[in-house]
Design brief:
By secondary structure, the protein is an all-alpha fold. The protein has one domain: Rna Polymerase Sigma Factor, Chain: A, CATH 1.10.1740. It contains 5 helices and no strands. The longest helix is centred in the C-terminal third of the chain and has 30 residues.
Amino acid sequence: MQISEDTAMLSALKDNSLNAYQYFFMKYYKPLCIKACQMIGNMEKAKEIVQQLFIEVWKTGTYRSIEHSPGGFFYQLVCQQCREIKTNEDKETERLKTQCPPCKTGPALIPQALHSHLLVTTQ
């Protein structure tokens, strides 16, 4: 049964088992990438976010705080990370808009050649 396997792996994970961590990575990597892509609209960036998330969780030992649902734990972290990225992107877009407002003068005027007017006046 899937739930008992997750429970056993969660127990092993809390004992710093790299195999257990790999199990959860392999199980949740693709669905987490899909979720991240839905939120930010870029699959390559989504993959980077998920990979970096798993690296950080392992390095910091945050996985030790997983109580019940490893899937929910990782989904929550991915959603949080994607929201932060979107917020930062929105702030950057707004900052760029305020720095350089669009021109309000209308369409650009195209200069006309003066050559024909000069020929008329010199004759």
